[in-house]
Amino acid sequence: MSRLFDRTIIITGSAQGIGAVYAKAIAAQGARVALCDVAAPDACVAEIRAAGHEAMGAICDITDAAAVADFVAEVTAQFGEVTGLVNNAAMFASLRPKPFEQITSEEFDRVLQVNVRGTFECIRAVMPGMRAAGYGKIVNIASGTLFKGTPGLLHYTASKGAVIALTRVVAREAGAAGIRVNCLTPGFTLSEGIMDAAETEAINQMTVASRCLPRDQMPDDLNGAVIFLLSQDSDFMTGQTIVVDGGSVMN
Ligand SMILES: NC(=O)c1ccc[n+]([C@@H]2O[C@H](COP(=O)([O-])OP(=O)(O)OC[C@H]3O[C@@H](n4cnc5c(N)ncnc54)[C@H](O)[C@@H]3O)[C@@H](O)[C@H]2O)c1
């Protein structure tokens, strides 16, 4: 069954990594997908089209409000009203863990700017279209680090806490317009960007040992929850946080 048939859905940060995996899975459910990233998402767009689905893509920095508005306008013109948004773009794989005293003010600001303000800009940009449609599904990608207080990524963890907080406010303010906003918190996932990082093996071993389901978490493990949160199956859910991590955190 195509659970997202005839919908237009934006996935941010989808040139590679988990965002690209979401885009392919969402397209396979019948949606027209629009990909954006600071890197060109052309390869993923081509792959989705080759599989017989509709996709478009553009370079877009989510911290640039004007660029985000232009992207949403272009998507709407080509594919129709945007009724789905996956806020996946973030500074993550490029960050190396370090004690919080060594995080500079500039690094802290940049992570908050991308992960929090960028998410805010994307939500704000799709809101008029979703209000006009009387329907919208927004999935914000947070992280299990905020439940664990994972050492080494204070700026990142703080930013993902803020993503959950803003999810709840938007859910309250936009619910009457038929717009649902929920959060997904993945556990440590072996995405493209972290495979070569020196610390990945040790972090992964420790994380796997903490799970009820003691195995590696792969990007595909997240598709079911994202599709559920975009689909009509979750229409009476908003402001919620779903943990997908093999039972490491029990929320
Ligand atoms: N991999 C994990 O263990 C894990 C765990 C929990 C949550 N997450 C979250 O899942 C999402 C994807 O994770 P990933 O492992 O693929 O990370 P990643 O860092 O490999 O991918 C993030 C993507 O966002 C893009 N991006 C960065 N800044 C941007 C900007 N200003 N504008 C537009 N795009 C921008 C990057 O180019 C990249 O393609 C992130 O939100 C991450 O925080 C990942």
- Share of residues in helices: 40-55%
Instruction: Report the order of strands and helices.
Output: EHEHEHEHEHHEHHE
Average residue pLDDT: 97
Number of helices: 8
Sheet with most strands: strand arrangement: 3-2-1-4-5-6-7
Give the tally of β-strands: 7
Radius of gyration: 17 Å
For the record, what CATH class applies? Alpha Beta
Shape: globular
Unreliable residue runs: none
**Main sheet characteristics:** 7 strands, parallel
- Ligand kinds: nicotinamide-adenine-dinucleotide
Oligomer designation:
single chain
The termini sit apart by 31 Å
Strand content: 15-25%
Class computed from helices, strands and strand pairing? alpha/beta
Protein architecture, described:
It is a single chain. The protein is of the alpha/beta class. The protein has one domain (8-244): Rossmann fold. It contains 8 helices and 7 strands. Strands 3-2-1-4-5-6-7 form a 7-stranded parallel beta sheet, sandwiched between helices. The protein is globular. The two termini are 31 Å apart. 45% of the residues are buried. The chain binds nicotinamide-adenine-dinucleotide. Nicotinamide-adenine-dinucleotide binds at residues 12-13, 15-19, 37-39, 61-63, 88-94, 114, 118, 141, 143, 186, 188-189, 191, 193-194.
